[in-house]
Amino acid sequence: MERSVGVAARLPESDRRDLAIQALAGSETVSDLAARHGVSRKFIYQQTDKARTALDDVFLAAAPEHEALFELTVTKAWLRQLIVALPLICHSAYRGVVEFMRDLLGVSISVGTVHNVLQSAARRAGAINQDQDLSSIRVGLHDEIFQGSTPVLAGVCAASTYCYLLVAAEHRDADTWGVHLLDAARQGLRPERTIADAGQGLRAGQKAAWGETPCHGDVFHIQQQYEGLANTLSRLARGARSRRQKLEARIGRAEQCAADDELAVQLDLARQTEVQALWLARDIRTLTQWLSHDVLALAGAALATRQVLFDFIVGELANLEPEDPRRIRPVRIALQNQRDELLGFAGVLDEKLIVIAQAHEISLTIVREACILHRLPTTSTAYWQGWNRLRTNTGDKFIALFDAVRLALAQTPRSSSLVENLNSRLRNYFTLRRHLAGSYLSLLQFFLNHRCFVRSRRAERKRRSPREVMTGQAHPHWLALLGLGLPQPLRD
After folding, report:
1. Beta bridge partners of 147
2. Same structural domain for residues 308 and 323?
3. Domain identity same for 387 and 456
4. Which CATH number does the domain housing residue 206 bear?
5. Distance between CA atoms of 251 and 264, rounded to whole angstroms?
6. Looking at the domain assignment, is residue 120 inside a domain?
7. What is the pLDDT of residue 52?
8. Phi and psi (nearest 5°) for 167?
9. What are the residues facing 143 on neighbouring strands?
10. To 5 degrees, how large is the angle CA 385–CA 390–CA 392?
11. Beta carbons within 8 Å of 390's beta carbon, 6+ residues apart
């Protein structure tokens, strides 16, 4: 923190102004700007507030508070746009739309009118969803999300975040998944592979619909499971230590011999329990770290090596299982049953690295070194030592090789976390409704696929919609696609 403050204090005024402009423009996130310039996020926010205040002073001071800034023609078509936009953009409930129209525009409408306008838009949205060509999707991410007790089957493109499946169903068994995946296949969806959790109905449905299309395991969910185990055992170890310390304190205060003997027995047992809890927590923590950093990490060893390490970790968990079978056994069984699915991404990455080695006429060993180098933080000495060594060994081919490996890693997803992201975005809409209808989900699916990303860490997504990223082609504004016309331009 001291270094950040020192850098901020030395920044010239012109650089502070440029930082504020970039933050206001949203061209980069505040975190990225702070990291790139070596300052704190608080400093960025301070400069942004100064710039915003200066802009307000220039523009608002020139115009009285009640002077008209622009003109907007209110037509029936514009009101329909507003009725559709308020629930989708602002997450407004139907009655909230009615209240907004009444209080701000002086227009009286009923809840039924809002419903009818949205239903009309939903029918148009559903037709557009079903007509979309999905043949460009290479990796699909599947999951089941819930609204109350209602399962919602979801499918997302890993590259573009395009949502190609969003259906409320009575069940989430193999038949239900199979039917909806066959419907998607009729739109051209035939991915090279999919990623999902260990749900049996999901996997059986995909096998029935798409045959031998691989369904790799979702690394995120299993990591949550074994890290939860490690954290629980660590808490138990701390509790055992706390109990031992309390007993030692009681013995120090005890004055009667009989009490001392009884407490001494309890203390001996507490010490044994603490020692056992500490080494169990330590061993489980070590195994989980190996699993995360050496086996399931994206940049790592070849598939065969990962399989050996994976089996070793499962074997060690089996050895430790008698110490706490209730907690360790579920994790051990989950890992044991999902080994090939969880390591599926490693096989895909191996194939890509072989192609890179052949294309650049470089040994696979060197390509693997470039891959593993991506595991290290760019601020570490080890990274730059490896970087220099690799550049010396590859010469003029280094830049092209390094970029190819970086791209291969970026295009090899390991988890279905984008579906979890979709779930978090949908949750703001689901909380407004007790029941989900197919038309409502179709409208949400359409909207999320056709609204543009305001910002993104990935340059290809910035200010583009998921559909544009998936197809590589621009499309009209989502209101126009729904037959509601283009947004009205403002007139001074």
Report:
1. 150
2. yes
3. no
4. 3.30.420.10
5. 8
6. no
7. 84
8. -135, 130
9. 154
10. 100
11. 366, 369, 370, 373, 398, 402
Does one domain contain both 389 and 442? no
* Residue 490: per-residue pLDDT: 57
The answer to the question of residue 470 being in a domain is yes
Length of the chain as a residue count: 492
Amino acid 420: pLDDT: 83
Where does a domain end: 310, 338, 366? 338
pLDDT along the chain (492 residues), means of 10: 58 81 81 83 87 76 67 88 92 91 92 91 93 94 85 92 91 92 93 90 92 91 92 94 87 61 82 93 94 92 94 95 94 93 94 94 92 90 91 90 93 88 84 67 93 81 90 92 84 56
pTM score of the predicted model: 0.78
Dihedral sign (CA 324, 328, 330, 332)? negative
Among candidate residues 62, 80, 102, the one where a domain is terminated:
62
The boundaries of the domain holding residue 47 are 2-62
Helices and strands (H, E) in the chain, number of each type: 22, 5
Residue 322: predicted pLDDT:
94
Task: Please report where in the chains the tokens 């209602």 appear, as a residue.
Answer: 150
In a domain, 90, yes or no: no
Q: How many domains does the chain have?
A: 4
Residues 208 and 225 in one domain: no
- Rounded to whole angstroms, how far apart are CA atoms 489 and 464? 20
